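Journal club prep — side note

Before the paper discussion, L.F. wants everyone to see what a predicted structure for a comparable chain looks like in token form. Sequence:
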Amino acid sequence: MTNLPAYPDFTVTLSGDNWRQAEFVNISKLKLVGEEVDEIKEIHINHSREMAEGIRAFDNVHVRRSIGAPELFIPLFELRSFLNSDTLGAIAIHQHPGFVKTGFAITSRGGCYYGTEENGVVKSLALCDATSWAGYEIPRIVRQFSLVFVDWCDCIIITP
């Protein structure tokens, strides 16, 4: 965390639990993604119950162990251009002072893409506040940058 935002146009505030819940990873990790998603599905099937319409209670959680870092290498300027975005924002984590040190955020029609970058190269990329347009945008990003998109909570995997 840092006291100054890396990009001052706007700030996206995330809860710690939402960090990287819908993310892009290097395509070389597809097998690991599948294994992790299988473990999450097992918890959905055997360790949860429906409390109300669309609300589930879990008696077990999954912590990703094998996936590690997303291992992305996308020039930030290319991502901004692809998403047709002129603004760059910062990331804050709810109830933590300051901003994610190397964090950035980009808004588009599909939602808010956020992640970390080093020297202008995107190292992690995730999506929050997705809109219906994300269904069009995500597959385009996956193809353009040869990535895998994973929505860990809903066990959705999108490949090129």
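L.F.'s comment for the group: The longest helix spans residues 30-46. Keep this in mind when we get to the figures.
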